[in-house]
Amino acid sequence: MNPPTSIDLKKNKGLTLEWEDGSTSYYSIAFLRRMSPSAEARQLREEIASNPLAVLPASATGTGEPLTATDAELVGNYAIRILFSDGHTTGIFSWRYLREIDPENSQSKPE
Q1: Coil, helix or strand for 42?
Q2: CA–CA distance, 41 with 24 (Å, rounded to integer)
Q3: pTM over 0.85
Q4: Best CATH choice for the domain 6-108 from the list 3.40.50.20, 3.30.1330.60, 3.30.379.10, 3.30.2020.30
Q5: How confident is the model at residue 54 (pLDDT cuts 50, 70, 90)?
């Protein structure tokens, strides 16, 4: 999958990507953190799906401040790594994965 033609990260709001086909995807920072492809986040999503009483972990910062992106870096030509204010840095979001989880389109895509 080709990289987006435009990448715009607003650290306290979200990530906007413009794709080759002219479509645009927007992901809030909270959504990106929740949907991180890291093993830790994936395991937490699976636990929440199977156990409605699962407890979400507290923010690593413990400051009560809103979650933000502190930085981002391109990973080769296939992904972006977003560093979050809660200390989470291990999620690498491939362009393909970002298309799959697009909040505007993911509901209509077949499983």
Answers
A1: helix
A2: 25
A3: no
A4: 3.30.2020.30
A5: low
